[in-house]
């Protein structure tokens, strides 16, 4: 063969080393009126490019020409090689029978080394179709021949494929061994696309072994590699959706899948990939409590998979479809039968999702009050509770809990829930980012609900308190992981502050800021990505909640009111005087609606001239008290009250409720958090700091007057109130007071911020503190707003401080009048100077304000959190 022939043949490996360069050179070959052999290679290269990165219709056209030219060239091996490429393209376009026929002809036509390559591609097609046994058999036959021929590239591809098939079957250790061997081989090649694919595959393996941060990091690395090559990343999107869902980021997974589907449609891409993306979108929609979208996406995926003859995939899609229909309120004997049939199909195919399908069949049967029918399905699902990755074991424990409930065993329900939540605890603490820890709790919501229902039925208030605490505010039990040095993250955060400050300045001047906003969003994604990559190091609070210890700390004078929600109704657990009593209040949904009315009223009262609205807001407060406290309001005693609300009620202005209006009231995310705050010791020296941010209507008037009161305090204002300086002074302070504009981000709670001289001080910044201030007062709007995520978790400025050593916070849950805040803050500090704890000082400060609507609403808007 001539040197020119060698150059043309080299285009085939080039298509996965430098895809776009290979495409350009192949098109150039065809313009030179090549020989049949060269024309065959060039058309094949273009066909591969179009198959994997472009339009499958164009791919088939070029690959058929490549096949015809190979026949004219009289080379059986050349023809076999093209038939293999054509077969894979036909399978990806949904023409399964034609594709497998072409691959079969390629196996028969090829010899030796070429035949082994064809076997690899047929194994790949078997994997795409979900025929894992056949895929492993073809790889078994191909690998020894490829190794003997010294074909490093194709041996690495075969090992990577075998590892991927092992993952599909749940054999993680075998997969990791093959991935490691393949990676050693890729290291000595220049196959950049294959290398990116190997990184992507390792990300999938990390996920299947339970390491979500590593999976996110590797998938992001793979995306960066693909971006340098300029190639689409549809398979990466499918895999990232799976990881995002496991991390509790279902809405993001749905958005990613839908975006990828639109992009795939725009280029006429692979039908097989579209079906898989639809399945990913359906799963994400189902997890995001959007059953209508899940039904639509899963139904289309089922039809595509059926047309492509992909039984393994079709069964997966049917499982999601049935689950979505059940979530939409449909239950019938036919749905039970459908779920059971899918479960048996998945079990027969060796799919790891089989236990989930059996659990679904059992759950639907229980909804129909058919426990005898449910038992065999739940028994099979429960077998997975001792083996496999965390979420698979969670499925098993959920099945076991449902079995126990059907059998009337409260003890069995609580034991299964305890074991299942322990599994999730271990998994959650592998996550370094507080956001992931909080969102991951959604996986335990069903077990927590089952346990609370069982505890309520058993009649013991103390038992219900223990189970209410078991899965409440667990993300706050330990601080987030903070790497000792991450220059890239710090660089992103510095750039983010600069861009955000420039954008804010431009908005104030009325200038358009689309370019700055795009860059701000890019930097937000980069910061969040680096944060989510962090692996957990800190352990949670290993000591289980002890109701007796809580009652001892409360003594006879303090009452703690924990609001548990069971089956949509608020259960009031009143703790104090050595006992726990239970009272039933109203519906959570009604309380949420009333709380929104109250918030709207407070917003109106923040403006002068709204005095007439005051009776309306007070009446809403009375209704809210009836819904939240019910008859328990008459038993609160005379002393301080600690409120522990569910996450969805943390915006309630508790001081507005009539029975709490004249009391010392504090709020805590959990009784455990209150105990930790109560037992936190203040730092030596009690260093004080005051911060005044830019743009305040009063100019931060209270800071100037407080500086005179605290003669030794550090005062940061004007240019000195920069984020790095503020963080340095906050770390380990005894008391911090920050007067700065607050912004709560509903679309990204971890980017909620306080406005400093050089840009926003965000939640991610607070999480870098070694120890946050013992007490902190945030005298600005929206600092006590939170996003409710996971099972019952909160993300926001206050919750970032609590795990880091802050024992007391005063913050605001509504927009307030800046001028009216000044006298409230001055009175609050008078109480602190007299030695009062924050909740008592805040109560007295409210009482010292003028009685008009503006000042009363300002006082109600502020809440004391913690116990200091």
From TrEMBL:
Q: Which SUPFAM superfamilies match?
A: TPR-like
Q: What Pfam families does the record tag this protein with?
A: CHAT
Domain CHAT span(s) in chain numbering: 619-866
Cited InterPro entries = CHAT_dom, TPR-like_helical_dom_sf, TPR_rpt
* Protein name (Swiss-Prot/TrEMBL): CHAT domain-containing protein
Whose protein is this, by species?
Streptomyces lusitanus
């Amino acid at each position: 063969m001539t040197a020119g022939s060698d150059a043309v043949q080299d285009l085939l490996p080039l298509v996965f080393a430098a895809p776009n360069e290979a495409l350009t050179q192949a098109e150039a070959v065809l313009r030179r009126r090549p020989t049949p052999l060269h024309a065959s290679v060039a058309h094949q290269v273009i066909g591969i490019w179009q198959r994997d990165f472009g339009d499958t219709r164009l791919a088939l056209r070029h690959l058929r020409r490549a096949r015809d030219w190979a026949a004219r060239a009289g080379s059986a091996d050349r023809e076999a090689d093209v038939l293999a490429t054509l077969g894979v393209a036909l399978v990806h376009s949904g023409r399964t029978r034609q594709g497998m026929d072409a691959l079969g002809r390629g196996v028969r036509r090829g010899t030796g080394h070429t035949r082994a390559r064809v076997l690899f591609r047929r194994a790949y097609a078997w994997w795409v179709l979900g025929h894992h046994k056949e895929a492993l058999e073809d790889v078994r036959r191909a690998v020894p021949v490829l190794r003997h021929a010294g074909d490093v590239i194709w041996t690495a591809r075969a090992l990577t494929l075998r590892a991927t098939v092992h993952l599909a079957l749940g054999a993680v250790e075998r997969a990791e061994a093959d991935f490691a061997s393949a990676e050693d081989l890729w290291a000595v090649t220049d196959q950049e696309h294959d290398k990116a694919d190997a990184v992507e595959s390792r990300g999938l393996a990390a996920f299947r072994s339970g390491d979500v941060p590593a999976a996110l990091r590797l998938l992001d690395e793979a995306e960066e590699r693909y971006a340098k090559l300029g190639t689409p990343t549809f398979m990466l999107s499918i895999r990232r959706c799976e990881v995002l869902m496991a991390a509790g980021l279902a809405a993001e997974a749905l958005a990613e899948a839908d975006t990828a589907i639109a992009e795939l449609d725009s280029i006429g891409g692979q039908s097989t990939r579209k079906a898989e993306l639809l399945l990913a979108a359906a799963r994400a929609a189902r997890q995001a409590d959007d059953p209508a979208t899940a039904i639509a996406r899963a139904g289309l995926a089922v039809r595509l998979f059926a047309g492509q003859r992909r039984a393994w995939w079709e069964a997966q899609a049917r499982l999601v479809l049935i689950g979505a229909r059940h979530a939409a309120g449909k239950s019938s004997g036919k749905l039970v039968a459908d779920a059971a049939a899918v479960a048996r199909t998945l079990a027969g195919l060796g799919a790891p999702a089989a236990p989930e399908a059996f659990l679904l069949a059992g759950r639907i049967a229980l909804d129909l009050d058919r426990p005898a029918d449910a038992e065999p399905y739940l028994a099979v699902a429960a077998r997975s509770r001792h083996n496999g990755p965390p979420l698979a074991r969670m499925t098993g424990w959920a099945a076991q809990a449902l079995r126990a409930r059907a059998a009337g065993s409260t003890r069995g329900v609580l034991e299964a829930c305890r074991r299942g939540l322990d599994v999730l605890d271990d998994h959650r603490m592998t996550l370094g980012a507080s956001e992931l820890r909080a969102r991951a709790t959604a996986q335990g919501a069903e077990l927590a609900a089952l346990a609370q229902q069982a505890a309520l039925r058993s009649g013991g208030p103390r038992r219900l308190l223990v189970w209410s605490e078991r899965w409440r505010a667990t993300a706050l039990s330990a601080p987030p992981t903070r790497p000792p040095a991450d220059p890239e993250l710090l660089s992103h955060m510095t750039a983010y502050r600069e861009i955000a400050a420039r954008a804010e300045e431009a908005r104030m001047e009325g200038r358009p800021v689309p370019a700055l906003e795009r860059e701000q969003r890019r930097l937000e994604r980069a910061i969040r990505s680096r944060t989510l990559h962090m692996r957990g190091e800190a352990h949670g609070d290993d000591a289980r909640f002890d109701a007796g210890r809580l009652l001892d700390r409360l003594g006879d004078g303090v009452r703690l009111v924990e609001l548990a929600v069971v089956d949509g109704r608020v259960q009031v657990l009143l703790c104090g005087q050595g006992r726990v009593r239970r009272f039933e209040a109203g519906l959570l949904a009604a309380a949420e609606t009333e709380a929104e009315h109250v918030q709207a009223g407070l917003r109106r009262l923040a403006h002068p001239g709204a005095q007439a609205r005051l009776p309306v807001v007070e009446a809403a407060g009375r209704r809210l008290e009836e819904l939240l406290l019910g008859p328990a309001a008459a038993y609160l005693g005379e002393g301080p009250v600690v409120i522990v609300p569910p996450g969805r009620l943390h915006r309630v202005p508790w001081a507005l409720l009539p029975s709490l209006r004249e009391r010392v009231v504090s709020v805590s995310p959990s009784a455990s958090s209150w105990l930790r705050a109560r037992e936190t010791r203040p730092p030596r020296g009690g260093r004080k700091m005051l911060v005044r941010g830019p743009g305040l209507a009063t100019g931060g008037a209270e800071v100037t007057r407080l500086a005179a009161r605290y003669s030794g305090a550090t005062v940061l204002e004007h240019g000195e109130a920069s984020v790095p300086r503020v963080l340095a002074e906050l770390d380990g302070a005894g008391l911090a007071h920050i007067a700065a504009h607050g912004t709560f981000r509903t679309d990204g709670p971890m980017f909620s911020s306080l406005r400093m001289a050089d840009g926003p001080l965000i939640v991610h910044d607070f999480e870098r503190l070694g120890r946050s201030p013992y007490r902190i007062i945030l005298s600005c709007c929206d600092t006590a707003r939170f996003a409710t995520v996971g099972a019952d978790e909160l993300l926001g400025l206050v919750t970032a401080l609590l795990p880091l050593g802050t024992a007391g916070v005063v913050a605001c849950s509504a927009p307030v009048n800046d001028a009216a805040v000044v006298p409230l803050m001055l009175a609050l500090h008078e109480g602190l100077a007299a030695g009062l704890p924050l909740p008592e000082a805040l109560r007295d400060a409210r009482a010292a304000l003028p009685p008009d609507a503006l000042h009363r609403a300002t006082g109600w808007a502020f809440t004391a959190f913690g116990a200091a």
